[in-house]
Amino acid sequence: MHRNIDLKVLYFGTPVVLISTGNPDGTANLAPMSSAWWLGNQCMLGMNTASRTTQNLLREGECVLNLPSAELVGAVDRLALLTGTPELSQHKIDKGYRYEPDKFGAAGFTALAADLVSAPLVAECPIQLECELVSAVRFDRADLATAFTVRVVRAHVDEQLIVPGTQHIDPQRWDPLIMKFCEFFGNGSQVHPSRLATAWEIPQTVPARPA
Ligand SMILES: Cc1cc2nc3c(=O)[nH]c(=O)nc-3n(C[C@H](O)[C@H](O)[C@H](O)COP(=O)(O)O)c2cc1C
Hints:
Elements lengths: L13 E2 L1 E6 L5 E6 L2 E4 L2 E7 L3 H9 L1 E6 L5 H6 L3 E2 L6 H6 L2 E2 L3 H5 L3 E2 L8 E2 L4 E12 L6 E13 L20 E3 L2 E4 L2 E4 L2 H5 L12
Parallel strand pairs: 7-8
Antiparallel strand pairs: 1-13, 2-3, 2-6, 4-5, 5-12, 6-11, 9-10, 11-12, 13-14, 14-15
The chain binds flavin mononucleotide.
């Protein structure tokens, strides 16, 4: 039996991406996001228009999509309520966000120079995709979100994930960090408490496994 409900959140489960972009002063920004899907060598990204990432991507025209494995969840969660933009919207203030210019330091991640773009790679992420911007369109009438299309121009993959002798990732070895209804999952199980879920007041049925 199905019921009609006024569904509050539509985040059914997508991989977490750490997107690095260049700031106007030459430093780097890093933000977790999960409205991302791939087709061919392109990726579509949904980003809040007011975020630093959106401003940087529109200006610089490039980014790196760093894919964290589930074991990096603690560092990802440390970035959850941070923004690289000093001017916070009232919505972000109410949810408990704060300005952080050094996101790599805050997470404990190492920045590595990329080959083709100026935004850095996150060394700890097993998959790092250097990308160039293809298009950016407003996603809704209120201009709250921007839908980006980016093209992957270079892929860096931890050799332990590569099927030997091929150009393929072994899906048995790759354990992506998944965001499902604002909670963190890996290998089908909830792996860590989520600051995002707390800020969004997502109801809990079972306490998340501590890190
Ligand atoms: C797991 C996770 C997934 C997120 N997914 C998105 C997303 O898909 N799009 C988005 O705009 N923000 C998303 N956010 C929120 C951004 O990380 C947040 O707005 C952040 O402040 C953006 O940083 P920036 O302003 O420095 O770009 C997500 C946060 C977390 C923790």
